[in-house]
Amino acid sequence: MANLKINGKTITVDVEDDTPLLWAIRENVGLTGTKYGCGIAQCGACTVHIDGVAMRSCGVTVSEAAGKEITTIEGLEVNGVMHKVQLAWIANDVPQCGYCQSGMIMAVAALLKENPKPNDSDINDAITNICRCGTFQQVREAIHAAANA
Amino acid sequence: MNQHVMPKLNRRAFVIGTATAGLALGLDLPFGGPSVVRAADGAPEVNTPEVNAWVVIRPDDTVVIRIARSEMGQGTLTGLAQLVAEELECDWSKVTTEYPTPGQSVARKRAWGDFSTGGSRGIRTSQDYVRKGGATARVMLIQAAANEWKVPPAECKVSNGVITHTPSGRTTTYGKVAEAAAKLEPPADVKLKDPKDWTIAGKGLKRLDTVDKTTGKMIYGIDVKLPGMLNAAIKDCPVFGGKVKSFDEAKIAGMKGVKKVVPVGDSAVAVVADTWWHAKTALDALPIVWDEGDNAKVSSETIAKWLAEGLDNAQPAYVGNQNGDAKAAIAGAAKKVEAVYSYPYQNHATMEPMNATVLYTPDKCEVWCGTQNGEAAFAAALEASGLPADKVDVHKLMLGGGFGRRGMTDYVRQAVAIAKQMPGTPIKLLWSREEDMQHGKYHPITQCKLTGAFDADNNLVALHYRLSGQSILFSVRPEALQNGMDPAAFQGVAQSGEAAIGYSVPNLLVEHAMRNPHVPPGFWRGVNVNHNAIYMECFIDELAQAAGQDPLEFRRKLMGKHPKHLAVLNAVAEKIGWGTPAPQGVYRGIAQVMGYGSYVAGAAEISVTDGSKIKVHRIVASTDPGYVVNPAQVERQIAGSFVYGLSALFYGGCTVKDGRIEQTNFDTYNSMRINEMPKVESVMVPSGGFWGGVGEPTIGVAAPAVLNAYFAATGKRIRSFPLRNQNISFA
After folding, report:
1. Chain B residues in contact with A20 (beta carbon < 8 A)
2. Which of A46, A61, B450, B499 could covalently link to B491 via disulfide, CB atoms 3.0 to 4.6 Å apart?
3. Residues paired with residue B57 on neighbouring β-strands, in sequence order
4. A125 vs B19: CB contact, 8 Å cut-off?
């Protein structure tokens, strides 16, 4: 049993303490925008914000996340207005299959909060998500577009 | 921005639970029957008759275009809709799409044709009939307006879905006449537009499915929820061909959430639980004894040894392309060059692991999944359920990557087999990444011995290309073999057809000695073009070097009779500045191939540090696919194909030990990240008159362009992959 603060709401989930946050979000809370890709914090498809920091939710347990501010892709909009990263993603037509993009967008949103005008080298250091479709060129363009929005 | 994207119809039909609402909608078909379409979210429910199988127009002028092929990121959904809309002359901003189901198609004598989405054929093999579908609907809609006005249809014209009677200036819209049009007889024949007159097709329009992919709302197979659904995790025998000997379900009986432990066929065990996490946790704790069989003795070393034997000319081989007498010419040549290359198994590693959700009752079997081939998934569900065709259907969802893997139906069969043991309970089967890595349908393993021969004037007089290795068709589609031989093995080096060699050599012998290890092969983006392009294009570079000639000039001399191959090669050469000095420390490589009906070439600029750290600065890729339906998406497919191909080259390679695949996750089967992504510049040179594919062909030139640049930089040839085995990595 844990109290998770997700996208501004506190939700009690009846799961074991060591349940990965990813699966609590997907199966117990029912938010499926956060994706399972590897389960070993390699691919980044499950990236969410925990207290504003991009984290791979498959590698965080619910007991570690309890009480902290968790934001998922569904919570990135504010008052019905999309985040500038989402808008840049749409303007640059970034996704292909789209499966990794929730995690990619969450990683980028956290980067821009920390570093509002990242250069290419900053992007290379901060964005380590896997995209098997190979959208990286559009991802990079959209990051710069969002930074300049 | 068009927000009415395809899966909204599906999504609405599915149960969407959210934290705030916990809302559970009923389960329904994407559309209730062949002629009834449900409105998208927010719109009023209306029953609108279809104009024809491809086109439904609602009273509010919304145009629903039906797409039979599967969207997996390659943009086919948008491209096919563009082709229909082009002929339909509708308002693109009002276009939305939906999938018919294979069951509906079967019930209507395959009204939507082939569902299979592989071999880069989404657009090229359906463009004709989908355009006719749009054109036919246009003629019927105009006729309906003309009937209402009692005027000849020839006096009417249409633009953006608005029909105008030219003499009187009266207007109406598609939405107003769609119902009347649906009752008309379709015209027997329609004339399609000349592509030079296209205004919707041929343009880099935005994809129709982007918004939901940026908000987390897109529903993939893994996201399906049905009322009362349980979740299954599965382990198949890690040794291919092995069986389950026993499992001790008592050991996990008390574990939280566990509902049932079931055998799946004779080789796998699944745990069904309330959540997938519980199912997986219990499965990991379940003692399973495997009967691994003789395949447990197989390793990468034994496979390599077996394939090497196939390179020996004394062994029988299947000739795929031949002219002159290569063996004699080589024997009498002034100079001879020989090299042996090999290419490993590769896993597709789609970001979304395999999964399928099934509700089975004795009266009905319904499947929800991402699939590249709805009809194959349907056939698999038929067979696994034992039910007749009118009691089975497959609802296609967005694919979290396909690359060929989701053209297979193993995961569908497994899910049906599990659901059949729990009738009335919807079961979602999801593979762990580890299961996905170890139970792939791998890019086949091959070796190739290439021998080239020159006369005294350094002219190439003979080329012998001897492949040894695995046939995909032997395993996947044995009915496509010819007298037991695999003609697809020659993709990219064939005599003619959609994957023809681009060189003329006076004495040529291309042959394949089939060796089929127990590891199951599959169609992996680019398929046999991948290794054939590496072998041929790297060796052509070796021959150029042996002849002391520039790699581009050497190729050009052999390509006089292959103008389309040559045109794309010239296009990349010009764009990358071949023949002009590269920046300090930067070296270039070049390659070309034909595959899937398209002519492609690539050139790379790289630098190498310490002989082993490669930085790919720049890629130029050219394609002639005949026609380009959406240049923005073609550009993305080209760039993406380089990521897929170079990931495999640098990081990939699946090895076999004790009969099983050793790699289990992205830590041992890595993939390129953004910091390794080169700048990819696309040069599209569509020459018209034919339709080639886009998703796959350019992957063929990714690896050889970089490898040839690596030689230019270091003087070293790499002939065995992945590069990590040679301690070569991205800088």
Report:
1. 277
2. B499
3. B63
4. no
CB distance B31 to B98 below 8 Å: yes
**CA nearest to B632, candidates A94, A117, A110, A1:** A94
Beta bridge partners of B442: B521
| 218-247 of B, contacting A, C-beta below 8 A | 218-220, 222-223, 225, 231
DSSP B103-157: HHHHHTTSTT------TT-TTTTTHHHHHHHHHHHHHHHHHHHHHHHTS-GGGEE
Nearest CA in chain B to A5: B19
| C-alpha–C-alpha distance, residues A104 and A95, integer Å | 10
Are B488 and B443 in contact by the 8 Å Cβ rule? The answer is no
Chain B, window 4-23: residues with a beta carbon less than 8 angstroms from a chain A beta carbon: 17-20, 22
Distance from the Cα of B73 to chain A's closest Cα (Å) equals: 3
Tell me the per-residue pLDDT of A34-80, one tens digit each, with 9 for 90 and over.
Answer: 999 999 999 999 999 999 999 999 999 999 999 999 999 999 999 99
Rounded CA separation A40/A45 (Å): 11
| Alpha carbons B516 and A27: distance in angstroms, whole number | 42
Residue B547: pLDDT band by 50, 70, 90 thresholds?
very high
User: What's the whole-model pTM score?
Assistant: 0.94
In which residue are the tokens 């990358």 written? B576
Which residues in chain A have Cβ-Cβ distances shorter than 8 Å to B667?
40, 42
Q: What are the structure tokens assigned to B324, written together?
A: 């002159």
**CA–CA separation, B119 vs B523, rounded Å?**
8
Give B700 or B33, the one with higher predicted confidence: B700
How far is B209 from chain A, CA to nearest CA, in Å? 9
Confidence at residue B46, expressed as pLDDT on a 0 to 100 scale: 54
**Tokens at residue B691, please?**
């339709």
Residue A87: helix, strand or coil by DSSP?
A: helix
Instruction: Kindly report which listed range (B14-18, B76-80, B722-726) carries the lowest average pLDDT score.
Output: B14-18
The helix (H) or strand (E) run that includes residue B212 is helix B210-215
Taking the C-alpha atoms of residue B350 and residue B568, their distance in angstroms, rounded to an integer, is 30
Q: Do B350 and A132 touch (CB under 8 A)?
A: yes
pLDDT > 90: what percent of chain B? 93
**How far apart (Å, rounded) are the C-alpha atoms in residues B415 and B384?**
9
With a pLDDT cut of 70, the percent of chain B lying above it is 94
Task: Confirm if A70 and A53 have CB atoms less than 8 A apart.
Answer: no
pLDDT for res B15? 30
Instruction: Give the integer Cα–Cα distance in Å for B354 and B372.
Output: 12
Residue B48 has a pLDDT of 82
Token reading at B288: 């399973």
Optimal mutation site among B18, B214, B618, interface A, most CBs of chain A within 10 A: B214
**A134 contacts B640? CB cut-off 8 A:** yes
- Give the dihedral sign, CA B223/B224/B228/B230: negative
Report the chain B residue with the minimal C-alpha distance to residue A76.
Answer: B215
Which domains, and CATH codes, for chain A? 2-74 (3.10.20.30), 84-147 (1.10.150.120)
| pLDDT tens by residue, B101-143 | 999 999 999 999 999 999 999 999 999 999 999 999 999 999 9
> Which residues does chain B have within 8 Å of residue A82's beta carbon, measured at their own beta carbons?
214-215
Cα–Cα distance, A2 to A63 (Å, whole number): 7
CA B683 to chain CA mean position, Å: 22
CB B518 within 8 A of CB B444: no
* Residue B236 bridge partners (DSSP): B268
